[in-house]
């Protein structure tokens, strides 16, 4: 049974940066599409960024140019580098592997 563990969230001022990590256990990520999602209070969960097994990336319009997703298959970990953060980025961020496996989430709070 695969397990995903996110880390790196926290409180940051607007304009700052955070780097989220998603470590996988019990399964290799190398053959899977990986994604980062977020859910703000009162809103639906939304896709932020994704990366295919070939390394092809895609981003939500709201984060293009500010966020970068990457993967290190040797470390079985996916990253989300978040720069130029704005208060609207405040949410719980979740990692997803393939179709069904989710992490527990990590809180990101951006103060104005």
Molecular structure report:
With 112 residues, the chain is mainly β. Helix content is 0%, strand content 53%. It has strands at residues 3-7, 10-13, 18-25, 34-39, 46-51, 57-59, 67-72, 77-82, 91-97, 101-102, 106-111. β5 (46-51) and β6 form a beta hairpin. 32% of the residues are buried. The mean pLDDT is 97.
Features:
7-stranded mixed β-sheet, mainly beta, 4-stranded antiparallel β-sheet, globular, 112 residues
Brief overview, please?
This protein is mainly β and 112 residues long. It is built from no helices and 11 strands.
Per-chain topology:
Elements lengths: L2 E5 L2 E4 L4 E8 L8 E6 L6 E6 L5 E3 L7 E6 L4 E6 L8 E7 L3 E2 L3 E6 L1
Parallel strand pairs: 2-11
Antiparallel strand pairs: 1-3, 3-8, 4-5, 4-9, 5-6, 7-8, 9-10, 9-11
